[in-house]
Amino acid sequence: MHSFPKMKKNIFMLIEAFSEAFGLILSADADLYEILWLSIQVSLTALLISIALGLPIGTTLAIANFPGKTICITVINSLMGMPPVVIGLLVYLALSRSGPFGVFGLLYTPTAMVIAQMLLITPIIAALTYQVMEDLHKEYRDLFFSLSIPLDKAVAAYLWDARYSLITAVLAGFGRAISEVGAVMIVGGNIDHLTRVMTTAIALETSKGELSVALGLGIVLLVLALVVNGLVTTVRTRARHYGYA
Amino acid sequence: MREIRHSGQPNLQIRINNLCLDMRGSRLLDQIDLILKQPGVTMILGPNGAGKSLLLKCIHGLLFPTWGSIDFDGLNKNPKQAMVFQKPILLRRSVMDNMRFADQGTQTDTELEQALDSVQLLEKIDHPATQLSGGEQQRLALARALLTKPDLLLLDEPTASLDPASVVIIEKLIQQATQQHIKSIFISHDIGQAKRLSADVIFLNRGQVVEYSDAASFFSDPHSDEARAFLSGEIVL
Ligand SMILES: Nc1ncnc2c1ncn2[C@@H]1O[C@H](COP(=O)(O)OP(=O)(O)OP(=O)(O)O)[C@@H](O)[C@H]1O
Ligand SMILES: [Mg+2]
């Protein structure tokens, strides 16, 4: 049982940590913003690569017919459910000095974290793109045949008419990437000023008992998640308003 | 100067040779042998599930027959076709953007607006097409099909959910199309409409042509028991 004065002390400590956390954010603490900036850089890079891969993969799976298509879809769907730590481990094995890509010396660099996050969210973006595009393809296919729409125009129409759902998929991917901790910890190593991102920093500072730094980063991460979710909701509402969802 | 309106091909002939269509192990269209020579509207009648929509899709090239073939004779062996589907397919865009997409930039916005006006959708020009009422969607689908200036117009129950005033509008448009030598094949469950529009009638039942004759003789003196029962409002099985 906690004694009353001890509880009071705990609450006081929490309040202090919170005010210090806000202090760090508001005073533009250099370390905090360095970590934030690296997080955003890594996750945005991973996201862009994932879009460049996932969008064409999902679209091809939705529109084209080829042998092995069902297998591809199954593989992507199961990759989507792969635990991040396992992805981290695989990337670690591939990049470690004795691994197949060891010569590039990428382990414990931001590039390694980009690779891990990219592997994590490409299946998500590909699978969501596939679902959205397949629905639209089923809906439009006969009309496009009837109007003799060439393939490039058809694909452009699919992408355009699915844009709200695709933006939602991309935002979901970004949210997943930036909040990931296990894989980037393994392949990035959480090295100060080099590979420390928000999630790994929060894990470290919490374990050290540096609650104010952890909380400050936590608040920033939370705000970021809220912004992304807010964007998703806005996009969905707009889509519904215009009858596109 | 007024531009001369496009005319379809006079004398377009459609020959359906021993067409069979199998899907999932069952024969859905069975040995259809028809030569459609009459200009104007060919009406396809028959009970639900008879295979009317499937036949139209075969003619359009959307479905590939398991056996047999379809040939076109006329000025062009490959006439320009447009189809209005039983369930309208509209892009998730505005009414006007649906027209623009089908037109592919050959006509001015004013011309597209005129086309929309002809089906009384001018007020809805900026509405999302998928949020139109069922009848409005069908009218948009027809306006869009006519936009492509087809030689052959395939209509799968285009007036199924229309109010009487809209039916009149659509029937007038079809009659205008006939005057412009556009051949139409029309599926309907409305016997009055069939009498008003058709030059000849195909009566389908269970994937087979039970009867094919010109409209006058079909409605006054149907040869088959099925057609007679259908016309008198009995359920055909
Ligand atoms: N893709 C398909 N696979 C298997 N069977 C099908 C398929 N499409 C249609 N059918 C079957 O073929 C039959 C004819 O269908 P069709 O749509 O041509 O009927 P219809 O004459 O147009 O009827 P309705 O008046 O209800 O529109 C139906 O029994 C239907 O269940
Ligand atoms: Mg039908």
List keywords for this structure.
heterodimer, A: mainly alpha, MetI-like fold, 0% strand, B: 237 residues, alpha/beta, 8 helices, binds magnesium ion
Description:
Helix content of chain A is 79%, strand content 0%. The model of chain A has no long low-confidence stretch (mean pLDDT 91). In chain A, α2 runs parallel beside α5 (110-146), α3 crosses α5 and α4 packs parallel to α8 (182-188). Chain A contains ten helices and no strands. Chain A has helices spanning 4-26, 30-63, 69-80, 84-95, 110-146, 151-161, 163-178, 182-188, 198-208, 211-241. With 245 residues, chain A is mostly helical. The radius of gyration of chain A is 22 Å and the shape is globular. Chain A has one domain (29-244): MetI-like (MetI-like fold, Orthogonal Bundle). Chain B is α/β, with parallel strands linked by helices. In chain B, strands 5-6-7-3-8-9 form a six-stranded mixed beta sheet, with helices on both faces. In chain B, β1 (13-23) and β2 (26-36) form a beta hairpin. Chain B is globular and about 50 Å long. The N and C termini of chain B lie far apart (57 Å). Classes of the chains: A mainly alpha (245), B alpha/beta (237). The complex binds adenosine-5'-triphosphate and magnesium ion (MG). Adenosine-5'-triphosphate is lined by residues 23-24, 28, 46, 48-54, 86 of chain B.
**Assembly state of the chains shown:** heterodimer
Strand content of chain B: 25-35%
CATH homologous superfamily of chain A?
A: MetI-like
- What portion of residues of chain B is helical? 25-40%
> For the terminal residues of chain A, how far apart are their CA atoms?
54 Å
CATH architecture of chain A: Orthogonal Bundle
Continuous helix count of chain A: 10
Order of helices and strands of chain A: HHHHHHHHHH
Uncertain segments of chain B are 1-6
Mean pLDDT of chain A: 91
Structural class of chain A: mainly alpha
Strand arrangement within the widest β-sheet of chain B reads: 5-6-7-3-8-9
* Biggest β-sheet description of chain A: none
Distance between the termini of chain B: 57 Å
Q: Looking at CATH, which topology of chain A would you report?
A: MetI-like fold
Question: Please, how many domains of chain A?
Answer: 1
Total helical segments of chain B: 8
